[in-house]
Amino acid sequence: MNPPREATRPAAPVVAAVDMGYGHLRAALPLARFLGVELCCADVPPLAGPDERRLWNVARLAYTALSRVSQLPLVGAPLRAALESLTDIPHLHPSRDLSTRTLGAMTVDALVRAGLGRGVIGAVRAAGGPLLTTFFTPAIAADRAGCRPVLCVVTDTDVSRVWAPIDSGRTRIRYLVPTLRAARRLAAYGVPRERIEFTGFPLPHELAGGPDLRALRANLALRLGRLDPGREFRRAYRDEVAHFLGEVPEAAPGEPPHLVFAVGGAGAQAGLAARFLPRLRPLVADGRLRLTLVAGLRHEVAERFRRDAEESGSGALLGRGIEILEASSFEAYYDAFNALLARADVLWTKPSELTFYAALGLPVVCAWPVGAHERYNRRWVVQSGAGLVQGDPRYAADWLEEWLQDGTLAGAAWSGYMRLPKFGLYRIAELVREEAARPDPG
């Protein structure tokens, strides 16, 4: 009698991202870690060979340059128009078929034919498991090559036509979307509805704390104490807060609200700091506010922040109420940034993928959007009640103090926690494991 066969172990997934700004990496890294695999970058060695790397470099440099220069006054206007045309998202209403091939979709198809995504295809075939990617090009390339299954995590609240293949109705890509609007949008582009699943955005495990949201709830309870110094919000929503969080401790003496200002990966809008630092300086000096300026991987932005602090008279406050966060690698930055957000109270940033972090009970102040997708991100977070549009940066001290005293920021934190999806990381991981366990996927 033959011994029973050992169950076949599911093949590990390939988790792939592209270094096209922080957004796609910020979604992919927590997934790779939670699934216990390495994060692969589709646009750098060893996945991308010399020819493919040249294609990626051209695309990345063009987008980064447009993002940064489009923020300049006067000369930036025509470049903003060029960026808008590349990221154009048509009005969704009235409901209609939007599956017509666009210039962007045809350009992606041509790049895939020229070899973009070749390295990812090889990695997926060698691994024998699912592909999970947070950028559309590797998904489209793998789908075209017949790889199965292919899962693509959408990283904005709404997306342009380039996210779907030109022959969208026949795609086998499984799209995992962070919003219901993104699901409707992909369906309008011709993606079969059964290939679209609403999951939410993959937030960091260390900030969510697992499906019971232990870390999120603990951080939010402390945050509400700092964001509601006059107890206006907690008086109005006493029973709701007690039901979901329990007792909210008062802010500890000498622990003022903590504002985090984060620029995008391309360094866009770093110049805002010079405008808001002069009037914020007295709040920091008096111990009424803490401030962290996040430069990410851009040393030149960190140096600019230091220069702006000196010129605003805040130089003596560096390390004593004003901090600057910079790192030499994305993983180091990601870990430091998450540790920062665990104790932060307000996040001021352009409406990139960080708008999804409002679900952590972290109010988001939206700077000017860069591209059509960020306009939709801003609208989504503001309509949810978790986001606020920045006022005049020169008077940030005034409108921030007003929002603190009247409970506006505390209310935004609560709205994000109550209304926005928080379980994306765990739902996506579950779907990937299901696909990996199927004997005949797709």
Features:
six-stranded parallel sheet, Rossmann fold, alpha/beta, 442 residues, single chain
Q: How would you characterize the overall build of this protein?
A:
- The protein is of the alpha/beta class.
- It has two domains: 204 residues, 3-Layer(aba) Sandwich (Rossmann fold); 211 residues, Glycogen Phosphorylase B (Rossmann fold, 3-Layer(aba) Sandwich).
- It has 18 helices and twelve strands.
- The strands form two sheets. A six-stranded parallel β-sheet has the order 2-1-3-4-5-6, with helices on both faces.
- Helix 6 links the parallel strand 3 and strand 4.
- It is globular and about 60 Å long.
What's the short version?
With 442 residues, the chain is α/β, with parallel strands linked by helices. Helix content is 46%, strand content 11%. The two termini are 35 Å apart.
How is the main sheet built? 6 strands, parallel
Distance between the termini: 35 Å
CATH architecture of the largest domain: 3-Layer(aba) Sandwich
Which residues form runs of ≥5 with pLDDT under 50? Answer: 65-72, 74-80
Quote the beta fraction: 5-15%
Average pLDDT confidence is: 90
SS field, number of helical segments: 18
Kindly name the structural category: alpha/beta
Shape, principal axes of CA atoms: globular
CATH topology of the largest domain: Rossmann fold
Measured on Cα atoms, how large is the radius of gyration?
22 Å
CATH homologous superfamily identity of the largest domain:
Glycogen Phosphorylase B
Domains, number:
2
Topology as H/E string? Answer: EHEHHHHEHEEHEHHHHEHEHEHEEHEHHH
Strands of the widest sheet, in order across it, are 2-1-3-4-5-6
Q: Would you count the extended β strands for me? A: 12
Q: Roughly how much helix do the residues carry, as a percent range?
A: 40-55%
Question: So what's the CATH class of the largest domain?
Answer: Alpha Beta
